[in-house]
Design a protein that fits this description.
Length: 74
């Protein structure tokens, strides 16, 4: 993985990173696996925990953001 930090904004806690398309695909795949795992956890532990639901929502939002970035590259 060739990841480069281009800039950092400490005040807003933001990083600007540079990575290859393959690295982004790998990250998207990893987030997709995390979504699947959290969905299984939710289904196995009904009634579900608010913490698990919140974590799943965060992973889904991250997955969608990464998908939009990837689509913007092609």
């Amino acid at each position: 993985m060739m990841l480069k930090k281009l800039s950092r904004d400490k005040m807003h806690r933001m990083l600007t990173l540079e990575m290859s398309e393959d690295d982004l695909k790998n990250i998207i795949e990893s987030v997709d696996n995390m979504v699947s795992k959290e969905q299984r956890t939710l289904l196995e532990n009904l009634p579900s925990d608010d913490e698990v639901r919140s974590r799943l929502d965060g992973y889904k939002a991250l997955k969608e953001d990464l998908r939009k970035i990837f689509e913007g590259m092609i």
